[in-house]
Amino acid sequence: MAASERLGLSRAGASKTLGRLEQRGFIAYTPNPADRRAALVTITEAGAKAVDELFPRQLSVEIGLLHGLGEDREWVTEALRRLVAAMEARTDRG
Protein backbone atom coordinates (compact mmCIF):
# COMPACT_ATOMS: atom_id res chain seq x y z
CA MET A 1 0.00 0.00 0.00
CA ALA A 2 1.35 3.42 -0.96
CA ALA A 3 1.93 6.04 1.71
CA SER A 4 -0.74 8.23 0.09
CA GLU A 5 -3.32 5.46 0.45
CA ARG A 6 -2.43 4.99 4.13
CA LEU A 7 -3.25 8.68 4.60
CA GLY A 8 -6.52 8.34 2.72
CA LEU A 9 -5.25 10.39 -0.23
CA SER A 10 -4.88 9.69 -3.90
CA ARG A 11 -1.37 9.99 -5.33
CA ALA A 12 -2.45 13.25 -6.96
CA GLY A 13 -3.85 14.53 -3.67
CA ALA A 14 -0.66 13.66 -1.81
CA SER A 15 1.45 15.31 -4.53
CA LYS A 16 -0.66 18.48 -4.38
CA THR A 17 -0.44 18.61 -0.58
CA LEU A 18 3.34 18.11 -0.64
CA GLY A 19 3.62 20.80 -3.30
CA ARG A 20 1.80 23.29 -1.07
CA LEU A 21 4.01 22.39 1.88
CA GLU A 22 7.09 22.89 -0.28
CA GLN A 23 5.84 26.28 -1.54
CA ARG A 24 5.39 27.39 2.07
CA GLY A 25 8.90 26.25 2.92
CA PHE A 26 7.83 23.48 5.31
CA ILE A 27 9.39 20.58 3.39
CA ALA A 28 12.19 20.06 0.89
CA TYR A 29 12.78 17.39 -1.71
CA THR A 30 16.17 15.74 -2.14
CA PRO A 31 17.16 13.09 -4.69
CA ASN A 32 16.85 9.53 -3.47
CA PRO A 33 20.29 7.96 -3.91
CA ALA A 34 18.75 4.48 -3.98
CA ASP A 35 16.16 5.26 -6.68
CA ARG A 36 16.58 8.09 -9.19
CA ARG A 37 12.86 8.01 -9.98
CA ALA A 38 11.97 8.93 -6.39
CA ALA A 39 12.69 11.83 -4.08
CA LEU A 40 13.08 11.99 -0.33
CA VAL A 41 10.93 14.48 1.57
CA THR A 42 12.43 16.16 4.62
CA ILE A 43 10.96 18.68 7.01
CA THR A 44 12.66 22.06 7.02
CA GLU A 45 13.48 24.18 10.04
CA ALA A 46 10.40 26.30 9.27
CA GLY A 47 8.29 23.15 9.05
CA ALA A 48 9.55 21.86 12.39
CA LYS A 49 8.87 25.26 13.97
CA ALA A 50 5.32 25.26 12.59
CA VAL A 51 4.69 21.78 14.02
CA ASP A 52 6.11 22.84 17.39
CA GLU A 53 3.80 25.88 17.44
CA LEU A 54 0.65 24.19 16.16
CA PHE A 55 0.77 20.85 17.97
CA PRO A 56 0.11 22.23 21.48
CA ARG A 57 -2.83 24.27 20.17
CA GLN A 58 -4.28 21.25 18.37
CA LEU A 59 -3.86 19.12 21.48
CA SER A 60 -5.61 21.77 23.58
CA VAL A 61 -8.57 21.84 21.18
CA GLU A 62 -8.85 18.04 21.27
CA ILE A 63 -8.70 17.98 25.07
CA GLY A 64 -11.44 20.61 25.18
CA LEU A 65 -13.61 18.57 22.85
CA LEU A 66 -13.18 15.41 24.90
CA HIS A 67 -13.86 17.30 28.13
CA GLY A 68 -17.09 18.62 26.63
CA LEU A 69 -18.36 15.05 26.22
CA GLY A 70 -18.86 14.72 29.97
CA GLU A 71 -19.99 11.23 30.98
CA ASP A 72 -19.63 9.92 27.43
CA ARG A 73 -15.92 10.73 27.26
CA GLU A 74 -14.66 7.25 28.21
CA TRP A 75 -17.06 5.57 25.80
CA VAL A 76 -15.97 7.83 22.91
CA THR A 77 -12.28 7.42 23.77
CA GLU A 78 -12.60 3.64 23.75
CA ALA A 79 -14.50 3.74 20.45
CA LEU A 80 -11.70 5.85 18.95
CA ARG A 81 -9.06 3.42 20.22
CA ARG A 82 -10.92 0.58 18.51
CA LEU A 83 -11.19 2.58 15.32
CA VAL A 84 -7.45 3.29 15.31
CA ALA A 85 -6.69 -0.40 15.94
CA ALA A 86 -8.94 -1.43 13.06
CA MET A 87 -7.34 1.12 10.73
CA GLU A 88 -3.83 0.00 11.72
CA ALA A 89 -4.74 -3.64 11.17
CA ARG A 90 -6.07 -2.80 7.72
CA THR A 91 -2.89 -0.87 6.89
CA ASP A 92 -0.68 -3.73 8.09
CA ARG A 93 -2.45 -6.11 5.70
CA GLY A 94 -1.55 -3.80 2.99
List the helices and strands and how they pair.
Blueprint: H1 3-6, H2 11-23, E1 27-31, E2 39-43, H3 45-67, H4 73-93
Antiparallel strand pairs: 1-2
How many strands, which pairing sense, and closed or not: the largest β-sheet?
2 strands, antiparallel
Instruction: Work out the radius of gyration.
Output: 18 Å
Task: Identify the overall geometry.
Answer: flat
Amino-to-carboxy terminus distance: 5 Å
Regions with little confidence, pLDDT below 50 for 5+ residues? none
Instruction: Write the H/E string, N to C.
Output: HHEEHH
Strand order of the largest sheet: 1-2
Beta-strand content estimate: 5-15%
Folded structure, characterized:
With 94 residues, the protein is mainly alpha-helical. Helix content is 65%, strand content 11%. It is built from four helices and two strands; from the N terminus they run ααββαα. A two-stranded antiparallel sheet has the order 1-2. The protein is flat. The termini are close together. The mean pLDDT is 89.
